[in-house]
Specification:
single chain, Immunoglobulin-like, five-stranded mixed β-sheet, four-stranded antiparallel β-sheet, elongated
Length: 175
C-alpha cells in the first residue's frame, strides 16, 4: 500500500514539474527579442455603410505579419492596438486579438497577416464628406504584444495612412 502511494506521489510530482515548466512566463525583454513586425500597412476601412440616407463610418486599421527571430517556436501571442488622434490623450479606439494560437511560428518563419481594426472612427455621408471633415485628423497606432503570462510590451508605433480602402457603389441609373 505504501509503495502504491509512493508511486502516485512521485508521478504527481513529475506531472507538476512538467506542467509548471510548460507554463513558464515570458519576460517582456524575451518577447521583444523574439518577434519582428513586418509588412505593416495602415489605412481606413468601412465599419458601416448605407446608401440611403447616405452614411459611411470609417475606422483605422493596422495589418502586419510577425517574424519569429527567436530560437524557440512562437505560440500564444496576443496583440492590442491602441488608436489615437495625434496630440489627443484619449483613445479613439482599440482592438485586442489573440492572434497566434494553435499553429506555432517556427524560428525564421512568418505568420499570416494579422489585422486589428479600431472600434471607433469618423462618420460622414460618403468618402468625400469624410475627406473634408475637420474631425478626420491624423491618427497614430501603438501596437502591444503579450505572450505566455508576460506583461504587455510596446512593439511599435505607426502613423495611420490617409488611404481609404472603400469604394462607394456607382449610382443606379433610372430609365
Amino acid at each position: 500500500m505504501k509503495k502504491i502511494a509512493s508511486v502516485i506521489l512521485l508521478a504527481g510530482g513529475v506531472l507538476t514539474v512538467l506542467l509548471l515548466s510548460s507554463c513558464k512566463s515570458m519576460s517582456t525583454d524575451e518577447l521583444k527579442k523574439t518577434i519582428e513586425i513586418i509588412d505593416v500597412e495602415t489605412k481606413w476601412v468601412s465599419k458601416h455603410y448605407q446608401p440611403w440616407p447616405p452614411r459611411l463610418f470609417l475606422v483605422p486599421v493596422i495589418s502586419f505579419r510577425v517574424k519569429n527571430i527567436g530560437v524557440e517556436p512562437l505560440t500564444y501571442v496576443n496583440f492590442n492596438a491602441i488608436f489615437k488622434f495625434k496630440g489627443d490623450p484619449e483613445n479613439l479606439g482599440d482592438n485586442f486579438l489573440a492572434a497566434i494560437r494553435g499553429k506555432a511560428i517556427m524560428p525564421g518563419d512568418t505568420s499570416d497577416v494579422i489585422t486589428l481594426k479600431s472600434n471607433f472612427g469618423v462618420e460622414g455621408k460618403g468618402v468625400e464628406s469624410i475627406r473634408s471633415n475637420p474631425q478626420w485628423k491624423p491618427v497614430g497606432v501603438k501596437l502591444f504584444a503579450r505572450s505566455k503570462g508576460s506583461q504587455f510590451v510596446l512593439i511599435g508605433e505607426w502613423d495611420v495612412s490617409r488611404t481609404i480602402d472603400f469604394k462607394e457603389p456607382e449610382p443606379v441609373e433610372v430609365k
